Amino acid sequence: MTYSYPDQQGHFGQFGGIYMAETLIPAVEELRQQYLRFRDDPEFKAEFAYELKHYVGRPSPIYHAKRLSDDLGGAQIYLKREDLNHTGAHKINNAIGQALLAKRMGKKRVIAETGAGMHGVATATVAARFGMECIVYMGAEDIQRQAPNVFRMKLLGATVVPVQSGSRTLKDACNEAIRDWVTNVESTFYIFGTAAGPHPYPMMVRDFQCVIGNEAKVQMPEMIGRQPDAVIACVGGGSNAIGLFHPYIEVPNVQIIGVEAGGHGIASGQHAAPLTANSKVGVLHGNKVYLIQDENGQIIETHSISAGLDYPGVGPEHCLLKDIGRAQYVAINDDEALAAFDALCRFEGIIPALESSHALAHAMKIAPTMGKDKVLLVNLSGRGDKDMNTVAKLKGITL
Amino acid sequence: MSRIDRTFDKLKQQQRKALIPFITAGDPSRQLTVTLMHGLVAAGADVLELGVPFSDPMADGPTIQRASERALKNGMSLRGVLDMVAEFRKQDTTTPVVLMGYGNPIEAMGWEAFAKRCAEVGVDGALTVDFPPEESHEAFEHLQAHGIAPIFLLAPTTKDARIEQVAKLARGYVYYVSLKGVTGAGNLDLSAIEEKMPQLRKHIKLPIGVGFGIRDAATARAVAKLCDGVVVGSRIVQEVEDSNEQNVVANVGRLVQELRVAIDNEKE
Q: What is the residue range of A390's domain?
């Protein structure tokens, strides 16, 4: 089997593509050309590798969560520690890559959308690092949920713009960032945070995030003498997941499992799990993907305990991986994610992001059904410091 | 000959420019949209652009965003918009109606069903903001099979090769977006439009309408001198927002009349 996506126009099978207003088409085309030009440029690659090593602190370790695994009594759970990256999540891998490209394209102003705030923090960080002006769009609802990250972005010199339209969450922040880009297209680089959007973003973000899976492919044999039986990651837009999954697509006998946000449960309709809920194909934010929508093609407000997964769409490559059966997608509800969050705190002394807690929760669900010799590699995509307010509120505690 | 072609032919003979107002269907209410459409025609509109509300109008500024939100709250849908055009056609069989919006509601309905229904109710053209020619092959097959004109946007950033590509696919008229930005922005640059026009005319033999950023009679008149039609959206939608159900038709009518007079007196 040879897996080679996307095609030249950015299609992953029927998914992906470039669905943008005419004003932005030349900008997206310029980005594509510049990315293809620099992607294999030795100097660009060397600078990216240098920043990942010395600034981000890569490679991120893999940790055997032994006490947790013993307690579950089944498969061994290993964690890819993206939470230990500078800024506390995988988002920085992509932000650095795009900032280096922006620098080469002579763009001095960068914009970003953010949900949980991790991509906003990563973008604010690289903007400070490379001396660029930075504007971050964030839904007003998310600003409430993720106050510490808002303050971090401001400390780093970014302007955080609250978005009041629509559901006031990640999708609306995306809309607003696109509006900024269309207005300031010549001066501005849009550092898009996930492996979705118009081509080349799904490909480019994936490429930058593949450092996760590429490291794991070397680290796992060093630790256990073989590759894991399954790789598991949470999926909102799906950048941490595709970063882990992509290098494993052609590795036989490694199961790939994406974990969506089940919210109050798929049956409740209040979730953010388009793949698990068998949503229809639609077009939003520049690409054709499975999309949570009503029968009239209007996008429905989603729900998740985790702001970073609270998005109605999903990256086009995940849609393809679902359709060709190479990956399996499941949903974890709010309460299950919270239980996994607590478990990792208590058993391993690691406070995970609520997003990553979804992936962990699924591993904890299936581990007891598997033999002790089986190995699950979970992408611990971010740390949970940002979620203190949300978790305290859910537990009825005032900080 | 299509209603759009007939309209522009007639205007050309009269040496006049088209006035193309935009309103969002279902704003301020489902009942008033058809009344407003007739009011626009009575006030001097040549072509009507009817906005299909969408939950995530990325290319629109705050004014049309709010109109979209109001319309969706009023229960508006693509099928509902098509029904309105059927209602409008009971009294007006000559004024072209173009639907403008985003692709997803059409994707959800299916392009074939959409094109068929457009032909049934008397829609003349469709403009999907986020469907560039590259992604629209299937869509255009269905539109063309039912005689619905695909209307395209061109932008200040559009390069020669793309203008040529659009020229081949476009029918009816071409909509030139006069600024870099969302609908309703205020930074209209007349000299930039004037400079771009020869490049557009080189490839495009259809009439060219210009829109985005036309705020008043003076800008409408200035833009009319440069092209074949003036599209006014946010300014009219703003008038709808600022009015109540009693005076909205009169207020919008007065505004469109002012624009009509300004455009017809472009030579002054």
A: 59-88+210-394
Number of domains in chain B: 1
Query: Cα distance from B159 to chain A (closest Cα, Å)?
Result: 8
- With an 8 Å Cβ cutoff, are A20 and B78 in contact? no
Do A122 and A78 share a structural domain? no
Domain that holds residue B153: 3-264
On whether both A244 and A299 belong to a single domain, the answer is: yes
Distance from CA of B73 to the nearest CA of A (A): 12
**Bridge partners, residue A79, by sequence:** A63, A378
- Calculate the average pLDDT of chain A: 96
Q: Is pLDDT at B239 greater than 90 in this prediction?
A: yes
- What sign results for the dihedral spanned by CA atoms A154, B62, B118, B172? negative
The amino acid that residue A294 corresponds to is D
Annotated catalytic residue, options A60, A69, A91, A279: A91
Supply A321's token pair. 């991986």
How confident is the prediction for chain B on average, in pLDDT? 95
Q: A325 pLDDT exceeds 80?
A: yes
| Together in a domain, A356 and A388 | yes
User: Where do we find the tokens 């920043």?
Assistant: A51
Whether residue A18 and residue B135 make contact (CB cut-off 8 A), yes or no, is yes
- pLDDT, tens digit, 9 for 90 and up, residues B155-179: 988 999 999 999 999 999 999 998 7
Q: Does A291 touch chain B (CB under 8 A)?
A: yes
Q: What is the ipTM score, two decimals? A: 0.94
The span from the CA of B78 to the CA of B111, in Å, is: 12
Is residue A38 located within the same domain as residue A102? yes
Q: Give the nearest chain A residue to B155 (CA atoms).
A: A23
